[in-house]
Design brief:
The chain is built from four helices and no strands. With about 80 residues, the protein is mostly helical. The radius of gyration is 15 Å and the shape is elongated.
Length: about 80
């Protein structure tokens, strides 16, 4: 049962990530999947470190908001 729940959660995150703006998705993937530093992301995207920090915060908040909404909708369907 735990495996099924983990897979559902992974799928929900993947689907929600696909809905994000490409710039938000990129900064999240570079930071949390590729484990790049803020400075490396900044250099790659041509941004300041501060801009990367801001975009990462905004992207995380948007992902959290969307996941919360999709989770609430899936519970309502049950």
């Amino acid at each position: 049962m735990d495996w099924v729940l983990r897979e559902e959660a992974r799928n929900r995150v993947r689907e929600t990530m696909a809905e994000l703006r490409p710039t938000d998705r990129d900064v999240l993937l570079l930071k949390f999947v590729e484990r790049w530093s803020y400075d490396r992301i900044a250099g790659h995207l041509g941004l300041s470190r501060h801009a990367v920090e801001y975009r990462l915060q905004r992207a995380r908040e948007e992902l959290r908001r969307r996941l919360g909404t999709s989770y609430a909708a899936s519970i309502a369907e049950c």
